[in-house]
Amino acid sequence: MSASKFPKMLNYAALKQQFSAESAPEIAQHDTHDQQALSFEQESEKKSQGLTGTRLRSYAFATLTRKEYSKVDLIEKLCLYAADRNEVIALVEELAHENYQSDQRVAEMTVRSQIRQGKGPNRIKMALRNKHLDKSLVSEDLQDIDWYAQAHQLKVKKYGTEVSHDPKTKAKQIRFLQYRGFEMDAIMKAINKKTDDFDK
C-alpha cells in the first residue's frame, strides 16, 4: 500500500508542548485565585484574633490621624478589630481625656462644613445626630449664626435677587430651603426680602 493512505505518526513531544502552553494561563489563573483566597483567609484570621494593648493603641492613633471621629464612632470602629470592647472603651476615654479625640472639635468641624455646604440648622442637627454628637456642644455657635442671612444668600444664589409674587415660584423656593434645613420663619423672610433689607 501507499504510505499516504496511513496517517502520519503523531509527534507526542510537540503535542505535549502545545497543550502545556495552552493550559498554562488557566493554571496560572487558578493559582492566582488560590493565592487570593489564602490571602483573604489570612486577613480574616488576623482580624478574628483581635488587636490588644500596643497594637490596638497604634491602630487608634493611626485612625485619628486620618480623620476626626466622635467618641461613639471611634469606639465602634476600633471594636471591629479589637479583642475586647471594654479595652476599647477605656482606651477611647483615655484618648479623649488627653484631647487626642474630641467630640467638641468634631462638632465644630461638622457645623463649619455644613454651613459651607449651605445647610440650615435642621440639617446641621441631623448631621450631628448621625455622628452621635450632642447638639449642646455647639448650641452657642448655632445661636450666633444669622440664619435669615444664610437662607437669603442661598435663595439669591439659586433664584436671584428678585422677590417673586407667583405662588408656585414661592412654593418652589420654600421647598428648596426647607430641604436645606432652614426654619420657616427664616425661609419666609429670605424669599420676601430684598438684599438691601438685610443691611437695614
TrEMBL record:
GO terms for biological process: regulation of DNA repair. Its main location: cytoplasm. Residues 23-51 are annotated as: Disordered. Signal peptide: none annotated. It is found in: Cytoplasm. The keyword Cytoplasm applies. GO terms for cellular component: cytoplasm. The keyword Transferase does not apply. Residues 145-191 form the RecX third three-helical domain. Keywords: Cytoplasm. Residues 102-140 form the RecX second three-helical domain. Belongs to the RecX family. Modulates RecA activity. This is Regulatory protein RecX. The lineage of its organism: Bacteria, Pseudomonadati, Pseudomonadota, Gammaproteobacteria, Moraxellales.
